[in-house]
Q: What sequence folds into this?
């Protein structure tokens, strides 16, 4: 990753690209939605397909010269079907949000009703936040987690649905550490005759590997992003039964997008190929085992976790009980200084703001890709706790940063010699 061709033309961008490689190599990526893709996915995604227009779908394009684009998009579709078991797959959404937009556009009219999880309880902007198109075009009400337990309040959701009579219920979340009970939400959707969209953006890889239950075949629509736990090219995906295939495809193109990003679709195809290897299941299992080790150790230090632990790849710390005067932003910034990159996050019952909330969210997908095991994650939990406990202690932060450097040396990332993973 020397970026020589870029450097010859544009030294400023080349320097920033090299800086980013170094940043990723020398810090611990614990933003729960991030991962490190393989050199093969990077190569496919930066390929000559960035030059190609291919409006339409494989075998039915509005432009000539699409034979290789067709081959690659079909491979991505077929591999996705094998990974998740869906009848129909659309791999063209540019992102997870675009995937959700595709479903809304296909199935709803402006003003129709969406019932989704509140953002501060773990939902996502594209599920209907007022600042997002979904909150502006549709009528949105939101359900919550039980603030005592941190688990989805399924009974409250059922009552809310009966009262609101939504056209679609959205499940699947961005900051929810527990297994989602898809069938329970489907039963609520059936009772009120609503569609059910399950957004598995965060847990695509865990679902594909069978370490989280699957909503495919349960919910009407399953959307996701393709660069998080599934570790493929950047973008989105929609899965559904054959009966909705034409509506979904038309909503993506020409409904909401033009030319598909074929280079990203190539990255998706290669990442899906990797995820079909048996080693991917071991990766997904280790990701969850690492999150559990992280969760247990943080709790041993006296930190409070929303829901008291995790079933998936992330933990959500509520700082208020143990460190009432410390905000998520204080911790995010001090940890970044120490080389641990995660994000401040709202927690259920948030009493501060979305910009400076009371929690932090930490995930293990990227550390696991790097080779971290439970012991290494327990060590990371110790480091996080030390900084949470004294975010303003510069000497302590400097000392933690040395221990982070020892870990990044022990678990190299993009080192130009060994592939990141086979
Ligand atoms: N921004 C992503 C996340 O961090 O969860 C979701 O789109």
A:
């Amino acid at each position: 990753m020397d970026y020589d061709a870029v450097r010859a033309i544009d030294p400023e961008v080349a320097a920033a690209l090299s800086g980013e490689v170094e940043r990723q190599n020398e810090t611990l990526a614990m933003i729960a939605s991030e991962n490190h893709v393989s050199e093969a996915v990077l190569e496919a995604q930066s390929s000559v397909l960035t030059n190609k227009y291919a409006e339409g779908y494989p075998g039915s394009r509005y432009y000539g010269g699409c034979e290789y684009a067709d081959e690659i998009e079909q491979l991505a579709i077929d591999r996705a079907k094998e990974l998740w078991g869906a009848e129909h797959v659309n791999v063209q959404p540019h992102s997870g949000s675009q995937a959700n937009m595709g479903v809304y556009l296909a199935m709803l009219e402006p003003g129709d009703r969406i019932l989704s999880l509140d953002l501060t309880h773990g939902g996502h902007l594209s599920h209907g936040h007022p600042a997002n198109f979904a909150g502006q075009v549709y009528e949105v009400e939101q359900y919550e987690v039980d603030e005592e337990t941190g688990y989805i309040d399924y009974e409250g959701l059922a009552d809310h649905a009966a009262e609101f009579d939504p056209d679609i219920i959205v499940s699947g979340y961005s900051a929810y550490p527990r297994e989602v009970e898809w069938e329970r939400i489907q039963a609520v959707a059936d009772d009120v005759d609503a569609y059910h969209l399950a957004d598995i953006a965060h847990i695509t890889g865990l679902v594909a590997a069978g370490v989280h239950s699957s909503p495919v075949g349960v919910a009407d629509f399953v959307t996701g992003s393709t660069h998080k736990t599934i570790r493929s090219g950047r973008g989105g995906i929609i899965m559904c039964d054959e009966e909705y295939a034409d509506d979904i495809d038309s909503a993506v193109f020409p409904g909401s997008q033009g030319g598909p990003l074929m280079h990203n679709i190539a990255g998706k195809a290669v990442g899906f190929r990797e995820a079909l290897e048996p080693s991917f299941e071991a990766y997904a299992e280790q990701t969850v085992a690492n999150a559990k080790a992280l969760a247990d150790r943080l709790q041993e230090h006296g930190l409070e976790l929303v829901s008291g632990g995790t079933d998936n790849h992330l933990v959500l710390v509520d700082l208020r009980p143990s460190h009432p005067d410390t905000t998520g932003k204080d911790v995010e910034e001090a940890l970044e200084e120490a080389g641990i990159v995660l994000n401040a996050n709202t927690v259920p019952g948030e009493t501060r703001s979305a910009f400076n909330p009371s929690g932090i969210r930490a995930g293990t997908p990227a550390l696991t890709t790097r080779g971290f095991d439970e012991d290494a994650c327990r060590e990371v939990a110790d480091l996080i706790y030390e900084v949470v406990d004294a975010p303003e202690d510069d000497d302590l932060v400097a000392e933690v940063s040395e221990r982070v450097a020892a870990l990044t040396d022990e678990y190299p990332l993009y080192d130009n010699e060994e592939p990141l993973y086979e």
Observations:
- The chain has 16 helices and 15 strands.
- Residues 279-410 form a domain with the Aspartate Aminotransferase, domain 1 fold (CATH 3.90.1150.10).
- Residues 344 and 363 are 12 Å apart (CA to CA).
- The chain has two domains: 43-276, 279-410.
